[in-house]
Amino acid sequence: MDKTDKKLLDILQNDATLSVGAMAEAVHLSTTACWKRIQNLEERGVIRKRVALLDPAQLKLGMTVFVTVKTNHHDLQWLQAFSQVVRDMPEVVEFYRMSGEVDYLLRIVVPDIQAYDQVYKRLIKDTRLSDVSSSFAMEELKNTTALPLDFV
Amino acid sequence: MDKTDKKLLDILQNDATLSVGAMAEAVHLSTTACWKRIQNLEERGVIRKRVALLDPAQLKLGMTVFVTVKTNHHDLQWLQAFSQVVRDMPEVVEFYRMSGEVDYLLRIVVPDIQAYDQVYKRLIKDTRLSDVSSSFAMEELKNTTALPLDFV
DNA sequence: TTTGAAAGTTCTACGTA
DNA sequence: TACGTAGAACTTTCAAA
């Protein structure tokens, strides 16, 4: 993973529509050499997948809610069941097990409060949680899929 | 935005490597008809961009930190300055203004605690915050860019 | 590393309902 | 306005110089 690979990743994670030829030019390589590097990054799994990012506003998904969860259950079996239920909810776009005060943190994307309430009810019904707290995002100031490559 | 468009969006936000021909088959359309729909979704901005998603683990970005921020400054000028500083930090991948107890929530991606401490210092130095609290993710159970299309 | 060519894909032109 | 056929232009992919 040299400087050229890093440059290619930087390009790809910001815009994956460029042709191999255009990227080759940007990193001063022949098309084939560049193509082989990208191929290699894909095989090694450094590039996980290529996706289209949609505009939440246009899909009427204007509401982002962060939900923190505390639980009394700390056995593996409960965790696995809980994890499965939450992962299967398409409204939950992020889901972490946390250190500290809170046990789990979820980011939920929905059209409005009513839809959120449905998701909330499903959550507490299906998993028996001791303490659930919701915080609403008023404004999304930044949200990027581009990872910082400064450390690489 | 009919059922076919929705299906195309669903495909595209999960895998944008399929050819137009393959997608056309999936939605029972000719290649051209399908191509025009995708073109249209792009022009309307429903499809915002196409990107490659990278594997954080392989880039040694194994640490995710959620940072909550409270501030005494509530004027627009301070907000804009603060917002600019934070948005320009590549380690900050998400950044929201919140309702309730906390004023701002940041998701930060770094290789390790040392790197996080650097980011933390930069944050408090550049913006003069009254209360900053960090929570560490122990495990990423779900993280998807695919928005729920059930409401569309 | 580069050339080059086969296979595949995107995109345009034009016609139909 | 939405779809289809056909083909030109471009891109990807890979073998061989």
Give a verbal description of the structure:
The structure is a homodimer of 152-residue chains. The relative contact order of chain A is 0.16. The first copy, chain A, is an alpha+beta fold and 152 residues long. Chain A has a 4-stranded antiparallel beta sheet with strand order 3-4-2-5, covered by helices on one side. The first copy, chain A, contains 5 helices and 5 strands. The mean pLDDT of chain A is 95. Chain A has 2 domains: 3-43, Arc Repressor Mutant, subunit A (Orthogonal Bundle); 57-136, Alpha-Beta Plaits, CATH 3.30.70.920. Chains A and B meet through helix 1, strand 1, helix 4, strand 3 and strand 4 of A and helix 1, strand 1, helix 4, strand 3 and strand 4 of B. Strand 1 (47-54) of chain A pairs antiparallel with strand 1 (47-54) of chain B. Chain B binds a DNA duplex (17 and 17 nucleotides) through residues 19-21, 29-33, 35-37, 39. Chains A, B: It comes from Candidimonas nitroreducens. Chains A, B: InterPro entries: ArsR-like_HTH, AsnC-type_HTH_dom, Dimeric_a/b-barrel, Tscrpt_reg_AsnC-like, Tscrpt_reg_AsnC/Lrp_C, WH-like_DNA-bd_sf, WH_DNA-bd_sf. Chains A, B: Residues 1-64 form the HTH asnC-type domain.
